[in-house]
Specification:
With 378 residues, the protein is mostly helical. The chain has helices spanning 2-5, 7-14, 18-39, 45-58, 73-80, 85-90, 94-121, 129-154, 159-163, 165-182, 184-189, 197-200, 209-212, 217-231, 234-243, 247-267, 282-291, 295-312, 315-318, 322-337, 339-347, 360-372. The chain is globular, with a radius of gyration of 21 Å. The chain binds calcium ion. The site of calcium ion (CA) has 4 residues, from α3.
Length: 378
């Protein structure tokens, strides 16, 4: 069932230790179910809100499923066959079940809060940056927090990892905000908007204005403001990854973060975001995925990707505007935090990157990133 719902996630899960495969897989399927309820815009609100809020209780009801809910055929199948997910959840250790149930409860309540707000305010229902952070916390930060609790519960990571909720939250926010920025056009087309008015309102009267004026300096300034906001989470991501001890968990967590920064570096100062889908090169995705296996390599990628921002806009130009100065500070902080490990990689006597060639494994890797470049966005 997992394979059908997400081919990309099936590949990623296989890399985890056996102990974590089932809990992480069930966690993913349950949250995917919740997300299918949230994203189905044809599902009447009077039914949607209670289902979001009590979805965690369905995990305790053997045989429960629901027909015709979900925004794609595969997700509707997942919901119609949800009675097959429940026994798999029930078979997990109690400590894993507790985490999955608690996160599903909190995420469902948060999604319901924003669905209600969306119905009241219509497009542009995310007004303040504070609310934007809160929405991203519900749909992505909680995933980071839940995963950390699963990691610690497995014994593969120290109990401390589960306690660093602010860092885990930032890991989720960094990924979610990157997707929200990149998917501006797609979300506009689907009548879902997540860019906060507190930011876009400084550049235009309506959020769809940027798509209608894809060449305007105001559109570019707004985009760069959104990217600057996302970059502020980078130091927490570096700190979170530094805590991890298990090589498999490390890769599971690090690869999406490096991909996200590569995406942000690509969309930054790039008006193509307002015209179509912006993707990072598949060759780079594969290279990064194969090499991103220790903290020094993460430093190396974070450091060189941060430098790409400065290559697009010189520091002296950034310093001229208020938002640019914040961007510069964020970029310089990221570069300082990652300088040491990055230098070590550059000095390695056997400094060689595994360069992708087309083999069976790599073809799978390419296919994986071709799918995940569009991301599963919560
Ligand atoms: Ca969603």
């Amino acid at each position: 069932m997992l394979h059908k719902v997400s081919r990309s996630f099936t590949v990623v899960i296989q890399q985890l230790d056996d102990e974590l495969k089932d809990p992480v897989c069930i966690f993913y399927l349950v949250l995917r179910g919740l997300d299918s309820v949230e994203d189905d815009m044809t599902f009447p609100l009077e039914n949607k809100l209670p289902l979001l809020r009590c979805f965690y209780e369905k995990l305790e009801q053997p045989g429960w499923n629901i027909e015709n809910v979900g925004d794609s055929p595969d997700y509707r199948d997942l919901m119609a066959d949800f009675d097959r997910v429940i026994p798999a959840y029930q078979a997990l250790k109690p400590e894993y079940r507790a985490v999955i149930s608690d996160i599903t409860k909190r995420m469902g309540a948060g999604m319901a809060e924003f669905a209600e707000l969306g119905a009241k305010l219509g497009k542009g229902s995310v007004v303040s940056v504070e609310k934007y952070n809160l929405y991203c916390h519900y749909v992505a930060g909680l995933v980071g927090i839940g995963l950390s609790q699963l990691f610690s519960a497995s014994g593969l990571e120290a109990p401390e990892v589960a306690k660093q909720e602010k860092l885990a939250n930032s890991m989720g926010l960094f990924l979610q905000k990157t997707n929200i920025i990149r998917d501006y056009l797609e979300d506009q087309d689907q009548e879902r908007t997540w860019w906060p008015q507190e930011i876009w309102g400084q550049y235009a009267d309506t959020l769809d204005w940027f798509g209608k004026h894809p060449d305007s300096p105001k559109s570019l300034a707004c985009l760069n403001h959104m990217v600057t906001d996302a970059l502020a989470h980078l130091p927490d991501c570096v700190a979170y990854l530094s805590m991890l001890k298990s090589p498999t968990i490390f890769e599971f967590c690090a690869v999406p973060q490096v991909m996200a920064l590569a995406t942000l570096a690509k969309v930054y100062n790039n008006l193509a975001v307002f015209r179509g889908v912006v993707k990072i090169r598949k060759g780079f995705s594969c290279e990064m995925m194969l090499n991103c296996n220790d903290m020094d390599m993460v430093h190396y990628y974070f450091n060189s990707l941060s430098a790409e921002f400065l290559a697009k806009t010189p520091a002296a130009d950034l310093a001229k505007s208020t938002v640019g100065a914040v961007a510069l500070k964020n970029i310089e902080t990221a570069m300082r935090l990652t300088q040491e490990g990055s230098d070590r990689v550059r000095k390695r006597s056997n400094y060689k990157f595994i360069v992708p060639v087309v083999t069976g494994v790599l073809a799978a890797a390419v296919a994986y990133y071709a799918v995940s470049a569009r991301g599963p966005k919560a």
